[in-house]
Amino acid sequence: YAVFYPIFQEVEDRDYIDLKLWNRRAREVNSELFYRSTSQKVPRQIAWDGNLFRLLGYFAAEGSLTRSYPNSESWFSFSFSNQEEEYIKDVEHLLSTIFHLKGKRHYHNGGCQISISSKPIVRWLSSHGHQFRRGLTQLLERANPELQQSFLQGLFRGDGHINAQSVSIVSATPELAFLTRTLLLRMGIVP
Description:
Blueprint: E1 16-18, E2 27-29, E3 32-34, E4 42-43, E5 45-47, H1 50-62, E6 63-68, E7 73-81, H2 85-99, E8 104-108, E9 111-117, H3 119-126, H4 132-140, H5 145-159, E10 160-162, E11 167-169, H6 174-186
Antiparallel strand pairs: 1-5, 2-3, 3-4, 6-7, 7-9, 8-9, 10-11
């Protein structure tokens, strides 16, 4: 038997992601997008940088999307243990830096959830496929190695485990586990 792992040589480099492409019904004022049902405005263009990819790593590990009908509220959130204050603050900093949004903290049973109501961001996150984690493959496999490292940093902070003998990650989806392996191989790390 032979096992082959794709290591993509092509790198897609961008300066930004245009959120208007996924939010055609959003209103735009002074390069910010918003919907009438929410007052939270977000920048139309999001920098394609390490901050975004680290946040996507956190989201792949600890994130969720919620849409409620009939009032059509859209939320995205991150769930952490109360013990992970450093990561909670990092996610809050990233949300503020990237999207100019402030999340709301909710504490329950030893956990902390950071929730943000934003249709433009939820539409963009959900546009990467039926399950966000599956859609990450297309986004990440051709990103440059520095951005992939930023993604892995957020991912391992959320779902990784480190002890004296090993470094490991636990994933609920095989797609995310395979993607992680592929990114590590591309960096010359044999999992």
